[in-house]
């Protein structure tokens, strides 16, 4: 009867253990949909990953610096709308030259040079093209920041999920410990079994404390990305699972990457620079007027005596002997060739990163499915141990081995989930 009591206790405890494991596994493996915008569903009143990303974009100093650079570039459009300074000259004749109508006393001149038609518009177009290139930098910086926030977030999730698994396993070992103590009382187990179970608990507690230190460090890094107090609490989703199917993307989607768009904008800016250079190579037209006050002659008397001189003028500035503009044209041509080669090289890098991310995401899915099967088999082995108790042949060394295997498979599953979403975030950065 007493033996039967122990069997029933063990079966009850084991049933509870298995139920708890299934509840825990379900808690960590609920369906989690990865959206293109990296939105992560979080229960209750907790923030979503997208909210964190938006907060980071609003507060990150690097983003703010890029936005200021863009504002400066925008202001340069207004700067481009200019013409050469108006020239004003004045002189006084120390020795007044005599003319038919009298002696000239001074000379006052005003002159204004004007660029060729369309030059100012060409300057503005060039400034706009440069501003567009600066704006792409903001987009790139925001996407990189979103990627960093997402990756840090998934690392935080993995740490918390591992801690939850450790808590579950510590509770399981405590249950085994109580059972071992009971078995010692009836002579079915040794005190050494109890000590081994306690040692294992200590090891798991150590792992949990180490993970807490890792979480604190990662939380600091996460908060720094958001430019806020390092010790602010970060709430992470407790439930994540690899979806059954993942969207497929080909290399054509990489054409949307702003890193490539940056080179397109730079190419366009060089094209606008060349148009401006061609306009500046055209003549400049000047308009002016000279005013010469004349002293009236006393020895003659006629209608124009002492009449001041007003002389309108037109001038043309022609760059006949200036090779500057030819050199600039050649530089622009070479610069466009350079941008094309840089874009091609960057495309190769992005394609390699894309292929690697897809491969590693698929590897994570394979690893996850394998660990899921392993975990089921380990749980079946545990059930066999429970049945062996009925014959009085239970071995707590086997119990520890099975527990360790199950913990290993659970940890590997969490790593697979983290790896899947980290790689998904990279793919999202590359193609969206």
Automatic annotation (TrEMBL):
Major subcellular site: membrane
Subcellular location, record wording: Cell outer membrane
Pfam families given in the database record: OEP (PF02321)
Chain segments annotated as transmembrane: 29-46
Coiled-coil segments: 194-221, 361-388
Keywords from the UniProt entry: Cell outer membrane, Coiled coil, Membrane, Transmembrane, Transmembrane beta strand, Transmembrane helix, Transport
Family, per entry: Belongs to the outer membrane factor (OMF) (TC 1.B.17) family.
Protein's recorded name: TolC family protein
Organism per entry: Flagellimonas yonaguniensis
């Amino acid at each position: 009867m007493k033996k039967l009591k122990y069997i029933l206790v063990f079966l009850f405890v084991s049933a509870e253990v298995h139920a708890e494991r299934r509840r825990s596994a379900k808690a960590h493996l609920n369906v989690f949909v990865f959206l293109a915008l990296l939105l992560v569903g979080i229960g209750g009143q907790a923030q979503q990953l997208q909210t964190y990303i938006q907060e980071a974009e609003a507060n990150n100093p690097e983003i703010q610096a890029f936005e200021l650079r863009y504002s400066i570039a925008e202001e340069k459009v207004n700067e481009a709308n200019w013409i050469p300074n108006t020239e004003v000259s004045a002189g006084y004749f120390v020795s007044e030259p005599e003319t038919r109508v009298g002696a000239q006393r001074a000379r006052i001149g005003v002159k204004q040079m004007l660029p060729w038609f369309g030059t100012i518009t060409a300057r503005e177009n060039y400034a706009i093209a440069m501003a567009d290139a600066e704006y792409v930098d903001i987009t790139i910086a925001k996407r990189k920041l979103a990627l960093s926030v997402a990756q840090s977030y998934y690392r935080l999730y993995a740490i918390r999920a591992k801690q939850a698994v450790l808590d579950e396993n510590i509770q399981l070992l405590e249950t085994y410990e109580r059972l071992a103590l009971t078995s010692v009382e009836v002579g079915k187990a040794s005190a050494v079994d109890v000590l081994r179970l306690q040692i294992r608990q200590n090891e798991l507690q150590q792992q949990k404390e180490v993970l807490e230190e890792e979480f604190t460090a990662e939380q600091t890094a996460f908060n720094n990305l958001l430019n806020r107090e390092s010790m602010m609490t970060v709430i992470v989703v407790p439930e994540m699972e690899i979806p059954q199917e993942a969207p497929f993307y080909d290399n054509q989607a990489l054409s949307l990457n702003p890193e490539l768009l940056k080179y397109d904008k730079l190419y366009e800016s060089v094209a606008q620079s060349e148009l401006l250079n061609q306009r500046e190579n055209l003549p400049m037209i000047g308009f002016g007027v000279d005013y010469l006050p004349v002293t009236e002659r006393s020895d003659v008397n006629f209608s124009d005596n002492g009449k001041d001189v007003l002389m309108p003028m037109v001038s043309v500035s022609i760059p006949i002997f200036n090779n500057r503009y030819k050199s600039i044209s050649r530089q622009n041509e070479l610069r466009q060739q350079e941008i094309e080669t840089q874009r091609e090289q960057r495309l190769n890098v992005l394609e390699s990163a894309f292929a690697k991310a897809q491969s590693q995401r698929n590897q994570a899915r394979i690893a996850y499915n394998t660990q899921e099967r392993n975990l089921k088999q380990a749980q079946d082995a545990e059930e066999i141990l429970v049945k062996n108790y009925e014959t009085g042949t239970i071995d707590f060394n086997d119990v520890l081995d099975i527990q360790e295997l199950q913990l290993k498979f659970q940890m590997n599953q969490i790593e697979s989930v983290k790896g899947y979403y980290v790689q998904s975030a990279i793919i999202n950065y590359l193609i969206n």
